[in-house]
Structure prediction request, 251 residues.
Amino acid sequence: MTRKVALVTGAAAGIGAACARRLARDGVAVGVLDLDAERCADAVATIAADGGQAIALGADISDRAQVKAALAQLREAFGPVSIIVNNAAITGYVPFLEMTEEQWETVHRVNLTGTFIVTQEALPDMIEASWGRVINIASSAAQTGAPRMAHYASSKGGMIALTRTLAVEFGPSGVTANVIPPRFITGTIMSEHSFANSKQPMSREALAASGPICREGQPEDIAGAVAWLASDEAGFVTGQVIGVNGGRIIA
Prediction:
């Protein structure tokens, strides 16, 4: 891969950090973004120790001014953005009939509107270069539904629809857009929080055993797919749902 610049959101740990490390290993300069730059220090240090290039960035992705400032830092450090990995998200478990508008809107504001803001602010760089990759991390909950997670599942379903729309609208500009809806991925802040929640409907063991690949997913499983979608080899792939989910969804 020739020198590219990527922004990975929610990248302090888990899937985002794994994606940042993998892209850096492939020669991409990476903006490692989370709610504040201090959270990203370890991920950036790991990339630097492996000979890669990365910068720690802090922003609430649902705040356009903060996203603009973070992107300005990234461009100053490495140049125009050519790859975005929209991974940052929040979740929760609330019975549908008990869910408040505030709970609904908070999850959608981060997961869906945040993805919209980041993509809208970075996309002009890709259009100008006639080359770009938008890679959205959704959730298999958007494909199957998930009890007590109407706000989360619907926000991730929105990401799938948004991805397909971006693919159609910006394909002529040289930009591809694809979405990965993972199954349960071990070691992420979100998954650990979920299994510590008494409202989680399935145990860790039961979820892993639900197969057909009967193991927990790893952040690196997602990072490998992201690296391929970000490469020139995937230049004829757009608007696709890439199911890195151990076979939970077979379509």
Summary: The chain is about 45% helix and 15% strand. The chain has a mean pLDDT of 92.
